[in-house]
Amino acid sequence: MREENEITDWFKEYHNDIYNFLIYYTGCMDVEDFVQETFVKAVKNIHKFKGKSNPRTWLISIARNVAIDESRKRRKEELKRNRYLQFSLTAKGSESPEEIVGLSERKLELYMAIRMLKQSYYDVLLLRGINELSVLETAQALNWSESKVNLSYHRALKALEKKMGGREI
To answer: By residue range, what is the domain housing residue 163?
Structure first.
């Protein structure tokens, strides 16, 4: 019962953080199912939460894994479908990132540049730069050391600056 109340409290407190994280992470506005799945997994695995990190960090790491799993599943299904239909890979039915997120052109350009970075740079920029997690929280969410977070964040910023053609980020 205590665990159920704890998850309910976390849902009330962190729902928006998880929702916003998933919007940025997936590039899609329709993430309610992912948010729900995150909290379902949290309920099922609350016994694994040792309290060594902030609940928000733990929930973000679950949300990240939910999004990755869904992405893999969709990619597999699309590859299967395209193999049978003998079409080249296309993003059927997807809207442009601008339509999805409603960003200004400058923000859209920045968002697209971030999306083109390798996954580890994307993850650390999203958590540190956009979601404003601390180095420790980011390390816990990604299961990295704090020094790896710092180094990856620095390198990600450099890679992003290069993608942006040296313009201010």
So the answer is: 97-169
